[in-house]
Model the fold of this input.
Amino acid sequence: MDKTTEIQAAVFRRLLAHLDNRKDVQNIELMNLAGFCRNCFSKWMVAEAEQLGVTMDLDEARETVYGMPYEQWKEKHQLPATEEQKAKFAQLQRAK
Done:
């Protein structure tokens, strides 16, 4: 692995650790602010693995991103989205 790839991998691990430490930040908030969330990372991991000929399913990727099975994370940390959050998300989706 070249140094650029090592740096990128380390930054990704650091980002996942940061998100893990900020479980209070909900996915819908990330989507509304930045246009991506933890689930996006999981889907991107599956897509990139596929490009490299590696088999990875979504549950496996989610466990990597969330640090635990997704259903467990949702039960422990995911709050219901507010009507305001849902409305903003819908508005942003229409604007695409």
In short: The mean pLDDT is 95.
